[in-house]
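Annex B, item 7. Sequence and structure tokens for protein A, then protein B.
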Amino acid sequence: MITHLILLSSEDVARLGGPEEARSQIQTAVLGLRNVRSARLTVVVDDEQRSPFARGKVECAAFLELDFDTLSDMRSAVEEWRAAGDLGLLDGVHLVIAKKVDRAADPADLRPGSLMRVSLLGRADGISAAEFQTEWWGLHSEMVRDMPGYVRYVQNLVLDRHIKGQSVPHSAVPVDGIVEFWFPDREGFDACYASDAFSKTAKHGAEFLQDITTYLVETTPLEINET
């Protein structure tokens, strides 16, 4: 599975009329795309920095995820959207990601009041993309499993970065991974980040991470064209 992720700035959301109107317009656009396997719009509700790491350079107010079976399907859908009118979103920051689900509680099973935290990760100077993947998807992932309180953990590895439809270097969009943490309630959230297991995991993260930008978010599944 390949995911095309579009970062929306606060200006993008305002230009589209605010979060609800943006969701409506994006939903209509997604229904016009073929070969999308699933789609979600995630909106930032709290951008307080909840991490011992510095905040990174890339910020967003929302992001759109479109899942495809193949890279070819993804490219075709993006071109279809551009041809149909792209809501001014296709010239911004796009990320091509591979998804790894480590703890797979179904989000639909989470009760009202559950929390989702998303973090943008930037690798440390001197750490290659391959070294980042090895550490993050290997030992770091194993250490996260010892942390209490959460029910779902997803690692999104950035494979490529695009601006205005063109691939750009890492320095232009220094994001290497995106973490999704799901918590059943605020108590689980607090227990996770107050735990000794989190302290140990953060210490390991300092070996390969330079910055972490944190958000609390709300995510909404979008209807897709299944014809």
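Protein B:
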Amino acid sequence: MTLDVIPSRSGPALAEATQNDRESRIPLLSVEGLSKHFEMHHLERRLAAFNDVSFTLHPGEFVLLRGPNGAGKSTLLRTLYRTYKAQGGRAIYQSEMGSIDLVRAADVDMAWLRRTEIGFVTQFLQARPRVSAEEFVAEALLDSCSDRATALEKARRCLSAFGLKEELWPAYPASFSGGEQQKVNLARALNRPCRLLLLDEPTASLDREARRALVQRLDELKQAGAAMIGVFHVPEETRHLVDRTVTLEGPENLAQGTAQREDVHVAR
């Protein structure tokens, strides 16, 4: 299918759409038998990341991914975002233009979804040379703001909310510390319309105040109807947001067919 570019819903429109989706109980994302491995050509061997992973995600739900190091948690997020390509299974996403399989979607469709509906937050910032922090954040807001000045004003509020010092706003993030870069990362990723948000250890380099601001922002997005899948270095910080936990058991269990287990929580 070919997706035409249209504005994403946000605010009241997104909340209304979320309520309708909840009433119909149609999953926003259905992952079915998803599998991923890497070919280690220099070793002439195949490295399994995860196998036969299945779960569903509804609007406004938060699914926490857990498992030992090397179980494939971050790889699963990157596979859903299509940074990596899966070798098997499906990931059916209900976009505003209809159902689309994220495993087999055309690159142009994935680019459109990333710009308008699906967000990804990683602990690593990929800043561009000679682009200031405030300009970097404002770029992501241009689709939802009327003009560049409005986007820049909102970008500065976002950076302030995550505790980045005002004197650093016009500076280049490439020169920042890891924690400061992560604040820029969060300000860019968490302040634009988003229906599905993938979170790969976003608190890894943050101080206490920034972590508190992040959790508050995730709570706001969840209440507005955004669905989230996350990996957290300290999962206790988001315990009150989590609806379900999907535990990846690790490559050593793939042969026994125990790639995952799922636990249901009640978010408070």
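Comment on protein B: The chain has a mean pLDDT of 84.
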